[in-house]
Amino acid sequence: MKEIAFDEFYQLYQKESLSVLDVREVEEFEALHLEGAQNLPLGQLADIFDRLDKDLLYYVICKSGMRSARACQFLAEKGYDVINVQGGMTAFENL
């Protein structure tokens, strides 16, 4: 599985338009999220992943990197190009 450290991801995020997939629950997402991120809770991913564009590279984020790692494994098996953001939104809160 491809992974990126949060600091490296955030530098890219500030310079480029990235496709960010946030797999936290809706309440977590509404409380704090990165601008432009798409919320697709991990619990619903199996039912709605086909809404995603297979031509895009997705940076997958959660609170700490555990749920996003599971989401990346699932999506990669379905043929999507994904990168797990290590540290997640916890790292963002600690900037």
From TrEMBL:
Pfam families, A to Z: Rhodanese
Highest taxon of the lineage: Bacteria
Protein name per Swiss-Prot or TrEMBL: Rhodanese-like domain-containing protein
Cited InterPro entries: GlpE_sulfurtransferase (IPR050229), Rhodanese-like_dom (IPR001763), Rhodanese-like_dom_sf (IPR036873)
Matching Gene3D superfamilies: Rhodanese-like domain
Rhodanese domain sequence ranges: 14-94
